[in-house]
Structure formats: structure tokens, C-alpha cells
Amino acid sequence: MSCPHVTGITLRPPTAGQQVHKDDCTQCFDTPDQSWGIDVCLSCFNGGCDSPDRNHSFQHYRLSQHPVVLNIKRKPKPKKVREESPAKILKLSIPGEIEADYYDTTTRVKCLACNGLELDIATPDIAEVVNGVLTALSSTKQSEVKAWEEEILPCEHTLVLDQDEAKVLADQELAHCSQCDLKENLWLCLKCGNLGCGRQQFGGVGGNSHGLTHFEQTLHPVSVKLGSITPDGTADVYCYLCNEERLDPNLAEHLWHWGIKISERQKVEKSLVELQLEHNMKWEFSMTNESGEELQPLFGPGFTGLKNLGNSCYLASVVQCLFSLPTFQERYYYPNGDLPLTLDPANDLETQLRKLADGLLSGRYSLPPTGEEQLESPYPKGIAPSMFKALVGKNHVEFSTMRQQDAFEFLLYMIQTIRRASHQTHDVDPTKVFSFVSEQRLQCLGCKKVNYKTDVQDNISVPVPVERLPTGSSQDNQGFESVSLKECLDRFTQSERLEYSCQACGSKDGAVTRTAFKTFPEVLVVNARRFELVNWVPTKLDIPVVVPDEPFSLDDYFSTGLQPGEELLPQTSPTSDDEFVPNGGILSMLEEMGFPSTRCEKALYNTGNSDPDAAMNWLFQHMEDPDIDDPLNLGKVGSNVEVSEGSVALLADMGFTVLQAKKSLKETGGDMERAVEWLFSHPDDDGSTPEAQNEHREVTAGDTLMPALFKLHSLICHKGASVHAGHYVTFIKKTIGKQPSDAANDSDWVLFNDEKVVRGGEVDEMKKFAYVYFFERYRG
Q1: Degrees (nearest 5) of the Cα angle 528, 531, 534?
Q2: Catalytic residue of the set 41, 177, 239, 313
Q3: Is 727 known to be catalytic?
């Protein structure tokens, strides 16, 4: 039987830039490893499962009228034992797996309009496009390659490097560190030729930081890692003044200055990127209990893990917490499989969020391993959130990369992204559970008059008091006194004094401010700020915070508003240069870190005046701005700015309205990067008036019901010296249904460590050092 549909369409192989979805279905997490495989549309290269109950491939055909598909199935080969050569590797790179080494793959072409009629794969037109699909990088691999292509730029210190008098370094001078006997991880100072060892690194790479010591003593900024130099002129170059990996356009010349001929060098050590990838792929939390027994793996609905894509544990930890909340489950999980009708599901946020919910909550991808898989690991493989990560991070300067990120920053970004999408489509917004109204009370110390200002927030960042233990103390708390959660909340809501010029009485004696809750959220997100600035670098502090297991009350932190006898300060004009009053608590926090007041005020103004993390990140990103120390100038912003229609179009393509795009560009002087930053920090501003959307949100943000009791629901934990490195995991309190080894249902803490999902773990210890806490309203 011949197919009439092949002759009626034109099939072309995918171009280099086209996405080919052959790793998993674009609407669920079925892969070619399922018995039914994946159908790749030969017209648009969408990937759809051919499962009997969902059949997203056929759904795509009915919508697109693309009948011809390539079905791909693969079966794992028996495990091969590969012995690594003990010889020293001469050239290293991030290796790509060859699929044929691991799988036996079968393919067939069929026409869905002819009830799955199999077509001759050798037909010339079909053979060409099939070969193009099979040899093309999958959309997942495309995203990973693009994300890893980190743009490393030169800096002023590499461009204008002034080297000391030239000399040829003898072999013995290049043999080991000038201050110790280490013979690897050696960094050559391009200024004076000193050779110092680097910092200790993951994977057993030794280092005593003598290269850094040399910089601190001499301020010679640029060094190159000897073992990373390749004959084609690439190498790890680090600028200590910028505290960043940099590009040296004249590296060959700078090395020859010291007698090193670059064409004769061979790369014999891992690069910084390779070390970071290996670090984040292999970082382990303890998977045993106090008795040394393996923690029990959990299976079924709600116990599906997420594969680590290299540096995606920050995303996995946030996603697991969000989709453990009823509001996200009710909004995005459709057990009957209902999905939006779209021709491009891979790039539709609603589809990808529903896909994620289905993958995590259905239980289809959390089954006990069998056969050879069981011998390799007791854990299911988990689901790979590659498609979601590529979409949600698209056009974001950080989340579009494969670098490790701050989980709290990603949580805020997710909330903003989902909220903006919900407002545009008029769907139920699941992020409303985080919203509440805070009230800032300001009192002039001269005339005692007061002002009350409200802000809608989705979280609080509480400062953790730093109390160091006496030297030699026997307490095992990493050198810090334990503090209670109540102490952190007390500090967050305590009165702060700030500089203030009163318009009512003319006093310059200052004012005191205090922040409190005007309403309470359904879910309170708390970011515990345990760090201090060391040489302008945020350094994590392991300060134990004691969090109660039982419900606790926030009633003491409720704002009662204007009190009898209090007189309000006169309201300033909405267009006045003096309208903006920085959040006193956050301002003081930033000033305590060493940032100048003017910079802090600018940061708060540009990031919404309610988020210390966003303000601090703004400060780091804008430290080199030429006008960073100029006084904040309001009222004139945007008044004479001509908005580029091209810039408006670019912002509109990112999902913002024309009104929002124009306002953001006017507020930021036409700077695209700052405009995007402004939009993300003002997600509820519709572009009309500054207060329009905030007033609407205040009506619906939280409630005033008391007692306001909260109980710990989940937490995001981090191990590592910096929130931008190391590893994130999540603990969630869950009702655990009957497992293969259980007799009944019960409730316990569950550890989500990438694809590994187990009962229990180090939860009591990790509660003390968690980075983000989710407290759910407790109503008895």
C-alpha cells in the first residue's frame, strides 16, 4: 500500500540552527528508551511520544497536519567495563558520549495519516532527512553546547600588561612552586615570572594558594596556568584584580617574554571549566544514616528526581520545593493529560510547566529499577529538565548558561516569570501564596511625625547575627554561636536609625524605621543571610540557626498601622525628587557590609526597594559604572529619553507589553540591559503609573488572620564555600505512601538529591544551615 501524503509535502533535513527534539517528548518525559519510542516530526522536528495512553505524537499531527514521522527506539547495551589509562592525559576536554557505545538504536518511518503505515526509509527524499535528524545535535545537546560556550573577555590588565625585564626561565624555575614543592596546579605571573601554586581544587588537585599570596604581596594581577596551555594558544588566564577568568589576546607574546614557546606546550591538566563541571557532577551529600546504612530510596508519585545536567542542582532544588506545594500542583498537574494546543510546545512555558508537573507527580518516572539497572544503582534515572531549563533561562544573562547559580536568585526569577505569564494569560497565579504586604514605619527624630509605606513582597531575607566562638572552643559549630530563628526575625524587624532630612520641621537629626508585616502570606519564604564581605567577595559563614519543629507565631511582628496621637508627615508630590525613601532595614544591612550610602540608595531604587539580594547583586554588577557615586536623581529619569522602537520590539519579543517595554527603557535611560533588570524587579508594574499594579496586589496579597502560625515545610540546603559553587539539595516534609518495604503510610522528611530521592538524611543538621526555608501557614 502506497502513501499519498509523502508526495504532497516537501521534506528537508534540519539546518544547523534548528532544534531537533529527539531526546524526549516535548509534552512529557518519555524518551526513546520507552518501548514505544519517540516520533520525530520530519517537517518541523517536534518530538512526540507514541505511548498508548498519551500519544503526543498523534496530537501534534492533528494540530500541525504533519503526517510523516521518524520513530526512534533504543535499548541499552550490556554494561561495558572501561579501564581508564593510568598514563597522564595530554589533552583534556569535556567528553561527549558516543550513543552507539551505549545503545542499540532502531528506526522506522511511518505516516500517521495512514494509521501508522510504515514507509520505505530508503526512499531518497526520506533517507536524506532521516540521516539529517539522526546526525543532528539534539535540542538538548544544542542548548548544553551553547550554554557552556562561556564568553571570556579580556580586561584592561591583560590588554595593557607591563612586564618586567625579559629573561628565559630555566627548567628548574618551572618545575615547582617558588614557595613549596608542588609540581602541578602552577600559575605563572605574567608580570614578573614568579611561579606559584593555585588554590586547592576538587578532585584531589593540591594547592597552597601561593599564587594568590604573590598577588597580595605585589599586586601583579595576571597569571596563567602552565598545565592548561595548548599549542593553539588557549589557556586558563586569571586576573586577580578582576577576580575573574580572562582572555589574554597576546598570550603567546607574553609567554615568549619568559622564554616559553607556546607551540611546544601541551595541555596536561584540567581547565577551570572542566574542574567546575566535574565538581558539580560528583559532589555528594551523605546517603547513609547514623548507623552507616544506605538511606531507603522512595518511589512513586511525588518522589521523582531530576537529573543533574552539569550545573543544574540549583534549578532542581527550587523546582522540587515549588511543585511540592498544593497551589502549584493544582495549577499545573493534569492527570488526564490536558495540554495547551500549540505548534511549538518546547517553547511554550505553560506546556513545559505542565510537563514538569506530570513528570514529578505522576509517578511514571519513579519506578524501582530492575535487571542490570538495579545492579548499577538502586535509584531511578530521574527526569532531565533540559527543555524547561533552556526555555526558562532563555535570554537571561546567567540562567541561560551552564554555570552554577544562586538557588534563591533563581527562585525569585521563577516567581517573576510565572507571575508575568499568568497575568498575560489571565490564568490562576500559583505564586500568590508567597505574596504579603510589609509596612515600613518612618519617624522623624525631630518632630516625631511618622510616615507609613507599604510594599508587596514574596520573601524576606533575614540577617543572621554573627557571634564567633572564643578561640579553642570545644563546641562543634564551625566557630560560631548558634542563633534562633526568632533572633533573626527580631533583627529583621528591629528599629534602625538612618540619615534623614525632614520636610516638615527641617530637622536633619535623622529618623528611625521599622519593617513589620501588614498581612501574612500562605507560604513564607525566608532566605537566611549567612555571609560577610571579604575583600569585596561574599564569603559564606556556617552559622547554625535553630529552627523549631513545631508551629511558631508571627503575631508579634504584625504592624498595627497609624496609632492614636501619631501625626503623619506631609505627603510629597508624586513627581518630587524626594519621593523615594529607601528601605531602612535593607539600607543599614548594605551599609554594614561596607557599601557607600549613595550606592545603596541607587541599588534599592533600581531593584524595587524590598529585596536585599537583588540590591546587592545590582551593586556588584554596577560597581564600575562611571556615575555610581553620583547622587540619586529622580524626577528627571526618562523625561527626555527617546525610546528606540527596536529596543521596544526586542523587549516585546521577550513577553513584555509595549507599555512595560517603553516605561522600562525610559526609567533606565534607554539601556537595554538595565531595562530588562528593571522589568524583572517590577513584575507587577503594567507600564501605566508607578503604583497602579502595586495597589491592586495589596488588596489580594496575604491576609490579617491571627494567630499567624507557620510550620517548616521544606528547605534548600547548600554545601560549598560560595552559593555560586558547590551543590544544592532539598528536604521536603511529605506523607509517604506505602513503599515496597513499608507496611503503612507515614510522614517523614524526604531528601531530593538530583535523581536520588530517599527517606530521611541529615535533615536535623541541615535545618541549622539551610539557605532557603519554606514555612507553610499552619491552621491546626
Answers
A1: 170
A2: 313
A3: yes
